[in-house]
Specification:
This protein has 173 residues and is α+β, with helices and mostly antiparallel strands. The chain folds into two domains: 59 residues, lambda repressor-like DNA-binding domains (434 Repressor (Amino-terminal Domain)); 99 residues, Jelly Rolls. 27% of the residues lie in helices and 40% in strands. The strands form two sheets. It has a six-stranded antiparallel β-sheet with strand order 1-2-3-10-5-8, with no helix packed on it. Strands 4-9-6-7 form a four-stranded antiparallel β-sheet. Helix 2 packs across helix 3 and helix 2 crosses helix 4. The longest helix has 16 residues.
């Protein structure tokens, strides 16, 4: 992420400080090492998508807030890339629109988001399986799925083709 990694680290530190959460407490709540969190906050470590998701929950913020709501922000891990297309913030909720590219056979797991968060996925190309709670649904190109994202969930790109999808995450205020 280069320079954007520094901005993300500064944003995480600011959010943590605003909420009065110690470095140790946030690291424990997010399930990451205190040293790793310190390096992220000081810009010496670039965040992975797993780390950002892990931090967003305990901080009680949408993922987009960690990239300071900058359209075009890219967050990637091996076999997975997401680009923030748009963020809509109202008094009731924050809605994030992300373009996803998931390699064939890759599974993207996410911890539970804050209470009341809902995700929707519109598959543009390829196919995927979405799993949440005790539910599982398969979605082909042109299809749509919605699920409560305040429980652990995951989606897997099915078949031999890359999954391309639009993911909309709605976080109530």
């Amino acid at each position: 992420m280069g320079q954007p990694g520094i901005a993300v680290g500064a944003r995480v530190r600011a959010l943590r400080t605003e909420r009065g959460i110690s470095l140790s407490a946030l690291a424990a709540a997010a399930g990451i090492g205190k040293g790793s969190l310190s390096e992220l906050e000081t810009g010496r470590r670039n965040p992975t998508l797993d780390t950002l998701y892990a931090l967003a929950g305990p901080l009680g913020v949408p993922l987009a807030s960690l990239v300071d709501f900058q359209d075009g922000s890219v967050v990637a891990d091996e076999g997975f890339e997401t680009v923030l297309l748009h963020t809509e913030r109202t008094a009731e909720a924050t809605s994030e629109v992300w373009l996803l590219r998931v390699g064939a056979g890759v599974t993207r797991s996410s911890p539970a988001h804050a209470a009341g968060v809902v995700e929707q996925l519109v598959v543009l190309a390829g196919a995927c399986r979405v799993e949440y709670a005790a539910e599982s649904v398969e979605v082909d190109a042109g299809g749509h799925a919605a699920w409560p994202a305040d429980v652990p969930h995951r989606y897997t790109a099915l078949g031999d083709a890359e999954l391309r999808a639009v993911n909309v995450i709605r976080t109530p205020v």
